[in-house]
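ok trying again, last paste got cut off:
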Amino acid sequence: MKISEKDIIKIVSNNNNFREEVLIPIGEDASVLYPQQDSYLVSTTDTMVFRTHFNKDITPYELGYIAAASNISDLSAMGATPAFALINLTIDKPTKEYIKEITRGYNKIFKSFPVSVIGGDTTYGPPSITMTLIGYAKNSNFMLTSNAKAEDKIFISGAIGESFLAMKNNNYHLPAIRNELGRVLSDYANSCTDMSDGFLESLNNITDKSNLGAHIQVENIAINKKLKELIDTEKVSWQDILSYGDDYELFFTVEEKNSLILKSVCKNIGIEIYEVGNLTHNNEIKLSFKKKSLDINIKKRFEHFKL
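nice, full thing came through this time. structure:
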């Protein structure tokens, strides 16, 4: 049974997270905020579209979760904590259960900050979700991709290829949230980006904007045991994994003296990071595996899921 936009607003409102900065909440023509006065406001938006980013087999819970995770990953790369969300939702079957499940999906992440939904829109049509997040940053170091320095150490926040493996198994990867790390990084990193479009795209993004090169030791890149077995048996290649996206890990660079401090800080708070290479003065990108050069097309771009 279809439900009205008024019913959707009621479901979202009843499952919303409280923030004292929200003076007029969702339900009016617009929300009113009185934001924190000692922080920078950081905003991002992302759209997921049927037959481009997901198939009909995705559950509304997964859709809500992944949409929230992808936006929070962008804020994390800027050292910001999410606080407010606007959600535009297009659906072909607007049922009460569907809305409850998509709300449960994004709230699985939102509740821990918390993030309050302050508005959005709903329309009928082929499924898509556009989420805009607004967050706070205390530190003015936004770790721009143009701010990397030669000799910086290159790190990633976790295992890559998880979304690639999920796709091969006709599943959807529900990524871990790296926001705590992103906030820590703002005290130490020169540059940072989220790996939504893959390891190679992140590497190219930072080296191009900072006019640098890089040497990557691929054996230091974290992957799970199953992917390692697939590589060892030549069923998949490093090209497949490094080109694929949607892992939402962080890719960041840190000068050597700060990298030693960062490793110690992360170890003390139980966050794993992986050093995978370093930036160089020239514009050449080299990838090696146990000191042997890898034949990788570094310009291969990630294309989102397509039927």
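cool. Residues 8 and 99 are 7 Å apart (CA to CA). Residues 5-137 form a domain with the 60s Ribosomal Protein L30; Chain: A; fold (CATH 3.30.1330.10).
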